[in-house]
Amino acid sequence: MRAFGLIIVLLTGGLLLWGVRDFPLFGAADSPANGGVVTAYYLQHTMQDARVPNAVTTVLADYRSYDTMFETAVIFTAGIAIFAILRVFDDRGGRRLRKSQDAPVKGDQYRIIVGTTSRLLIAPIQLFALYVLVHGHHSPGGGFQGGVIIGASFLLLAVARNLQTSLDRFPERRFLAMGAGGVLIYAGTGLLCMLLGRNFLDYGALQAVLPATGPEMARSHGIFAVEIGVAVTVSASMFAVYAMLASRGRLKDGL
Amino acid sequence: MPTPFQILLHNFNYVCYVVLLMIGLHAMITKRNLIKKLIGMSVFSTAIILFYVSIGVNNGGDMLAGHDGRPVGNIPVLEHGIGHDAITHPETIDPRRYANPLPHVLMLTAIVVGVATLGVALAITQRVFQDYGTLEEDEILAQLNNPQENDD
Amino acid sequence: MIWQFDTLLLVLLIVAAVISLRIKDLLAASVVFGIYSFLMCLLWAVMAAVDVAFTEAAVGAGVSTLFMIATVYQTTRRSSD
Amino acid sequence: MTEHFPVFIVLIPFFGALLCGLLGMRWPRVCPGIALAGMGLAVVVAAAILQRVAEVGEWSYFVGKWEQPRGIGIELRVDGINALVLSAVAVVGWLVAVFSPGRLGRDEESKPTQFYILFLLLMTGLFGITVTGDAFNLYVMIEISALTGYALLAMGPHSRARLATFNYLIMGTIGASFYLLGVGYLYLHTGMLNMAGIHTVLAANPASSVALVAFTLIMVGLWLKMALFPLGGWLPNVYTYGPPLAAAAAAPLVTKVTVYVMVRMMVTVFGWKWVFGGGGWNEAVVWLAVVAILAGALMALAAKDLKRMLCCLILSEVGYMVGGAWLANRWGMTGAIYHILGDAFMTLTLFLAAGVLAGRAAIFKLERFEGMFRRQPWVMAAFAVGALGMIGLPPTCGFFSKWFLIRGGLEAGHYGYVGALIVSSLINAVLFFRIFEIAVFGSKPGKHGYDGPQVVVEPDGVKAKGGDLLALYGAAAMVVVVGLGSGWISGVIQRALEVNGVPLAAPAVLAPAVDETPTNDH
Is the CB of A39 less than 8 angstroms away from the CB of B84? Predict the structure, then answer.
């Protein structure tokens, strides 16, 4: 098996290195990718089209928003898939519950210090997450990063204290509904644009709904609505995956 | 025809991405422990993301930094002053001064897909441990060849 | 884009990947994989891909390392290779 | 409203899954209804798309109205090829949705809502793959259908299903990552992600090792995901030990849609001249397909239980399609695309019948077919129709796809491929008549003549419910309908291939003076 693996690795590595020969120089400004029409259009028209200085956010949520919608669907799918594989409702399921045979990790005596500091930290973390989400137009950040940081604040509570305290604040029924709800916000915005007569996910149509905004600002608000949907789904799914993995699907005794 | 040494010098990033890719692929094929396979899978996915981001790097071509006082090849976010007057006439922005935003968008997707796949794989690993009591592939196959207790 | 810093990071990345795959203790391997992800995030930040670096730090390094550690806690830390 | 149809067909199962996600927690009974209604609507929309594309020829839809300059937005393109695949996927999805309510309770653990969410997301991924005209968006869709496939197949009661799904996940991730790497190399070389855009730039400067490496990576990645023989080790275990409902949903679709992706890459993205202009290395791929066909057939002969046999047949069917596509002439490609449609329905029929007969057991030894014609006459009749399709008897679709493939093989002068097709059809005949013999005469060899002991028939627990039979007969009927409609279907495919510049004969090979135009003369 080892020799077989080595042969495949050398074969693929040789093919890829042979391909590197014809690559444009690293960082070349006139390479087909960097000097192309598409890149120039993105950088030059991000302000004109959507009033969003961060070109990455514009491309992510407006020019290629169909991609990002299905990427949010991937996160929602991961949450549902792990729920389907791991979740066990009645603990008397008869399956032998193998506890891991390792010695418990020492260091429980620091629980009070860790617990208190994490409790103090969680509120600023969530505030920062909202800042990242809202400020995605002007600086690097946006739906994914904001959503993960909100999820991470609940994970911090689950790791510092125990899973049950986190689940009291973010129960199972809520994070499953939020998972689907976030993607529905995203796809719903796109559908709204379709109902208003333009193509799917064409936020220019939202100006009919939003008070006193031109098509560009409508696009900017559309991007923001979509980012909120992404943040909701990502935070719910990340916490759901951790809750399932840390408790072998029983959502009782976490790490 | 660039000599191999020139390639190593200029395109060192691409050579390193191939090395990381091969480390990941080798681990996925030959490692016996399931979680080690998953670490190899993550290294494999991260190496592809490194390749994509390396495409987007831009050193501004002939515009040396400080040539016209403004930095080159920086983050694809338009500075406040420049961005404002780009609304009316967009051609004032010179794309060579910014990194290429498209690979960055694609890689946000790839990172998230990588974590989603890792999560599902770890869930399956836990169920395999519940059924067979071990994470080593050869021990599991040994149990399969002389089944004592698993249902068929 | 200071190429010395870029080269150093790339070498450290390869070293971290090899270590993470050779350590026998799975908990340690997960933590070294976290280091690998943070190095990758640093490298992308140097390459002016700050959005990707932000996401990798939060999603790639932070959360996936935690998933691995949660799984190792529920299974076993011993690994034969 | 009709001009939104290309994106509409992807959104129907997507919104269905989200509704299941929201409502399914409190009212699990609503999910089968959503699935049935959604897939029914999808069939109607797919038929409307097919009908319009058959006239107009091509339909492109820009998400978000970003048309100029080309490549900044995501474009969905539907032409003759993917309109047909779209309709096949929609009908198969609807039949599995009809089949699922009765079957669900027994197989999956107590999570019906999650099953329907994953099933509808799988259909969303497959529709997305078929419709998209953007190379990176295709990767996202491949990942959605892959993730839902892993979860559906890992949900089953059998412990070996999870180990098999773990290997499937590793191989599937390697395949999808190779495809992603290939798209990255293409983007590096052309600066475009839009399939039509890549084609125009590649046509301008074809000779570059980056494009060649990209093509190799994409092909190896797709062959890994469609389980072409040497790379398909993961398939038999996954669909044998996986839950029968998930196998019935994934087996007929996932590999076939990946073959469609390969065809799309060869015909639209790289272009016919680029792929076949170079040396004769397409001969090597056809010989690889011949190896796949024969290996799949021999493994099926060696298989002792029904589901493993069907899985090995899938491996050889993939060999048919890959060989047909690489014959470098239009009839071979027509046969490959037509086989995607036909094989989806044949595999669905056989897997639905296996699901009904085997029930919860993963291993359904062939000896248990004893007296099955008397015990389950309706199920066995549908199984027989699927079997005749596999063997290739008219009027089933199997016959016509083999007809096109053999014609392509003869025109390309590749007699090894034609021989492999014939040999594997004979082996299919042996496989299925062996089952019929056991079903009628019993499994003790040598003692069945007229005076042989009558097969004792004891009723066993397997009883087919209403939903099963409706789905089974729908699938069996589709096998025959696709066969009867082969003239119209091959006409649509021929026109689509003609538009995409697929010549009648391979450029290098001087085809015999076949001068009749490709009008559908039969």
Answer: no
